[in-house]
User: Fold these one by one.
Assistant:
Number 1:
Amino acid sequence: MILADAGCEVTLWARRPEVAEAINTTRTNPDYLPGFVLPEGVRATTDPAEAADGAEFTVLTVPSQTLRENLARWAPVLPSDTVLVSMMKGIELGTAKRMSEVIGEVAKAPAERVAVITGPNLAKEIADRMPAAAVVACRDEAVARRLQTACHTPYFRPYTNTDVVGCELGGAVKNVIGLAVGIADGMGLGDNTKASLMTRGLAETTRLGLSMGADPQTFSGLAGMGDLIATCSSPLSRNHTFGTNLGRGMTLQETIAVTRQTAEGVKSCESVLDLARRHGVEMPLTETVVDIVHNGKPPLVALKELMSRSAKAERH
Ligand SMILES: NC(=O)C1=CN([C@@H]2O[C@H](COP(=O)(O)OP(=O)(O)OC[C@H]3O[C@@H](n4cnc5c(N)ncnc54)[C@H](O)[C@@H]3O)[C@@H](O)[C@H]2O)C=CC1
Ligand SMILES: O=C(CO)COP(=O)(O)O
C-alpha cells in the first residue's frame, strides 16, 4: 500500500489463489485486512516469476523462520539487479543469523543489494494511513536513498541509515522485550515495571549491538527506542498481546492456539539468546523470556529471580 501510494507499481505474491483473486477483483484481503481497500497500483499473483519480473525492489515479509526455504524457491526468478528488502524482525533459529544475512547467503546478493525497512510501523495503523516514521537501512547509502524515495508518502516518512546490523537487532530484540512487557501487563504489574523493562531491554539490545559492530546511536532512534515504544505500548502488537496472555496464566499451547498472526519474539527469543551467547553478552531479560516461554518457568518465579540479581552500576 505504501509503495503504491508513493507511485510504484506493486505485484504481491500470495500463496493462496483465493487471496490473489480477492486482491485483484475486490482490492481487499478479507482474511488479513478486512475493511481496507488497497490502492489501484497493487495487484497479486501466485506465480513468483510474475511477481519478480522486472522488480527494482523485492520486498520480503514472510515469517522469519520461513525465509530461507521460501527464498531458495524464489532466488532463481529474481532479477540480478533487484534490491532485496527485508521487513522481517527475527533472527534465524539454529544459525543465529539476521534476515539480511540469510538473504545475502540464499540469493547470493552482496550487501549493497540488501536493505531493511524497520521502525514503529504497526500494520493496522499503517493500513489506516496514520502518520509514521521508519528507517530504511542499507550499507550503500545511495540504495537506501532510492528506497526512501520509493516508499515516501504523506503519511510515511522514511529516514536512511547505513547501520543495517543495529536496525535489524533493534527490530528483533524489541519483540522479545514486547513479550516481557506483555507478561508484566498480564500479571497486573504497573507502568514503573513497564518503563524499567523497556529501558533495561534497550540497554541489553545496545550491549549486543555494540559487540556486533552496530552504531549505539541506532538504538535511540526509530529502529530501537521508537519500535520498542510502539510494541510495548500497543494492544495491536502481536508480541505484546502474546505476552499478556502468558502473564494472565495461559499456557504456551493455549496462547499459540489463540494467536493467528506471527509473533516473531516467541521463536526469536531463543535465537537472540543464542546470538548473545555467541558474542559473550549478558541479556538477562531475554533469558527470562526464554525461561518463561520455552522452559515453563512461572512468571512470578522468573520476576523474583530477575529482581534479586546482584546489584550493578547502570552502565553495565
Ligand atoms: N505486522 C506488523 O505490524 C509488522 C510486522 N513486521 C514483520 O513482518 C514480518 C511478517 O509479519 P506479518 O506480515 O506482520 O505477519 P502475518 O502473520 O500478519 O502475515 C504473515 C504472512 O506470511 C504468510 N506465511 C505464513 N507462513 C508462511 C510460509 N511458510 N511461507 C510463506 N508465507 C507464509 C501468511 O499467510 C501471511 O500472509 C515479521 O517478521 C514481522 O516482525 C514488521 C513491521 C510491522
Ligand atoms: O514490529 C511491529 C511494529 O513495528 C509489530 O509488532 P508485532 O509484530 O508485535 O505486532
Number 2:
Amino acid sequence: MSETAGNTTGENATGANTTAANTTGASTTGANTTGAKTSGETAFSMTGGKVTLDRRPILRGVDLTIRPGEVVAVMGTNGSGKSTLVRALLGLIPLSGGQTLLYGRPPARFRDWWRIGYVPQRLQVGGGVPATVREVVASGRIARQRRLRRTSAADRAAVADALEAVDLTARAGDPVQHLSGGQQQRVLIARALAGEPDTYVMDEPTAGVDAETQRLLADTLATLVLQGRTIVLVAHELGPLEPLITRGVVVRDGLITHDGAPPRPEGECARPGHEHVHPHAPDEPGASEILGRGAGAGPLNWQGEA
Ligand SMILES: Nc1ncnc2c1ncn2[C@@H]1O[C@H](COP(=O)(O)OP(=O)(O)OP(=O)(O)O)[C@@H](O)[C@H]1O
C-alpha cells in the first residue's frame, strides 16, 4: 500500500491503500479490468486466524473466505472482534496463529494495494498534519500513481467524484480538522472512493453519519455493487445499506458464530424508523433478489448473543 493519509493515522502498517476511493468514477476500473473476477480467485482467505493483543486472545481461530463481488456485513456486539478481524484480513494486525491471504498472497507479499480501499473506524483523518479535505481525499490516489508523476486529469476527476459522492464538494478547501466527526468520516469514505479500488473494507462507515449521507453512501455502494466490486463492511446499523448486503458474518468473542444469510428486518425491526438490523431468517427476499445475485448460504442463528 502506498503512503497515504491512512499512514498518518498509524493504521497502515503494511502500506495497504487505506486511502480514498471513487465510487462514481469506478466505471473506469470496472471489476473486469481489475481481474477481480478470475475464476476461483478469493479476495480474502483467512484460515485458523488468531490474534492476541496484550496477551489476550482476541481472534480465536477464524476461517473466512470472501470472493470477489460479495457484499459482506460483519456484525456483532461491541468488543466481539469485528475491527480486529477486518484489520487482520488486511494485514494491519499480525496473526499469532493461522494465515490470511489477500488475493492469494500473504499481506507482506501483496503488492496491488491500489485494489484495496480501507475506511478505518473514526480517526483524526488529518493525523495532526494540516491538510485540506481535498488533499486528504487526493491521498487516496497515491497507490495508483507512479512515483513523481504529476497529478493527472483522471486523478482530479476521481477526487471530484469522490467528494461529490459524500457531498463534501463545498468543503473541499477547508482544513479537515475543521470538520465535524461525521464529516470527517465522510472524508475517509471519499478517500477510499478516490482510489477506485475493486475491494472495499469499511469499518462502520455510517457511524455518526447523518441519514441523508447514509442514503448517499448507499447509492454510491449500490453502483459499486452493480460493477461487481467486493465490499466488506463492519456495521451495527445497516440502515439504507441493508438491501445491498449478500452475506452476513457474525463475530462473537473472537469467533464467527454465523456466516450466511444477510440480516433482514422483520416485525418490530421492519417498522419505519427502526434501523437496528439483526440477522433474521434466510428465507426472506433480500439483496440477492433485489440485485439478482446469489445469497449467502446457511441457516441463520443470530443468537450470537444468547
Ligand atoms: N490494541 C489493542 N490492545 C489490546 N486490546 C485490544 C486492542 N485493540 C482491541 N483490543 C480488544 O480487542 C477486543 C475486540 O476489539 P474490536 O475493536 O475488534 O471489537 P469490535 O467488535 O470492533 O468492537 P466495536 O463494535 O465496539 O467497535 C476488545 O476487547 C478490545 O478491548
Number 3:
Amino acid sequence: MIEVENLVKRYGNHLAVDHLTFQVEPGKIYGFLGPNGAGKSTTMNMMTGYIAPTEGTVRINGFDIQKNAEEAKRCIGYLPEIPPLYQDMTVLEYLRFAAALKKIPKKEVEKQLADIMEMTMTTDVSERLIKNLSKGYKQRVGLAQAILGYPEVIILDEPTVGLDPKQIIEIRELIRSLSEKHTVILSSHILSEVQAVCDEIMILSKGKLAACDTPEGLTGLMKGNAALEVHILGSEEALRKILPFIAGIAEFSIENAPEKGAVKAVIRTEAGEDIREDLFYALAENKMPILSMNRVEKSLEDIFLELTEDQSSISDPDTAEHMSENKGGNEDEGNL
Ligand SMILES: Nc1ncnc2c1ncn2[C@@H]1O[C@H](COP(=O)(O)OP(=O)(O)OP(=O)(O)O)[C@@H](O)[C@H]1O
C-alpha cells in the first residue's frame, strides 16, 4: 500500500506538483496520465525517493520514503524515464551489478537473473554491450533491473516511449503479467495505453489530480456527455416549445439544418439517459418528422483534453465525485 499525502514540489516559483493526495492499493495496475509537464515524472521521482518533496509525505507499506528510506526503497522497483544503464557493461554484468546494489542474497541471484531475463526477453542479448542495444532492448534491460528482487511495487515512467508497435505489445503483456504478483504504477501521456493496461487511471494536470477512476468510470463519464444530433422538419420556434418537456435533456442548441425547412438540434443528455424514444413520440405528436438522428459521443481524448485544459472545473470536489460515480461500459479499442 502506498499513501501519498499533500505532496508538493516547487522548482523556484514553479509549482510542479501541487498538494497531491492519493492511495495505491496492492495488486492493481495504476496509470498516471497527463500531458507533458503535468508532473508525472516529478511525482514518481518523489514516490521512489529519487528527489525530496518540498512538502508532504510518501509512505510505502508504512515506511516513510524520507525517514525510513532503506526499508521503503526495498519495496520498490523503479524504471525512470531515462533508464540508469551503464552503457559499457554487458546486459548480464549490469544486472549482476544491480542485483548486488539491491542486496539480493547471493544464492538467489543466478536463478533470479535467469528468470527475469527470460521474462523480459533479454536472455539472447545477455553478453551484448548495453550501448549497442536498440532502444527497445535498453528499455527491457531497465525493466529487468526494476523487477530484480521482486519488489512489491514496480514503478515505470513512460515504459513504452520510443518503442515500435510490436515491442509495445510485448511490454504491455509483460506489465500485465507483473500485476499478478506486484502492484504496478506506470505513467504515460497516451490515453489508450493507460486504458489498455490499467485498473485505475489517475489523470494529472498542472501538478494536480484531475480525476481518478477505473477506465470504465471514465468511459461512463463519456457516455454521460453523449449528445444527439437530430435533423427535424419544422421550425425552431416549435421545437423550442417541445424539448423542455422531455425528461433527461441537460441542454440543447438549435440551428438551421442543410435540408429545406428543417432545423438541426444538438441535444446533450443527463448521464445514463436515452431520450430517443420520447423524442420520437413528442415530435410525431407535433407532426415534426425526424429526417435523421445520430448519437455523437465525446471521445475519451476529448474528456482527457477537457480535464487537463480546464483545471478550474476539475479541481471542484463535486465534479470529481460525480466522475467516480459514473461507471459504464468500455468501448475504447485501446490500440497501444
Ligand atoms: N529539475 C527541474 N527544474 C525545474 N523545473 C523542472 C525540473 N523538473 C521538472 N520541472 C518542471 O516541472 C513540471 C513537471 O515536470 P515533469 O517532468 O514531472 O512532467 P511530466 O508529466 O513527467 O512530463 P513529461 O511527460 O514531459 O515527462 C514541468 O513544468 C517541468 O518543466
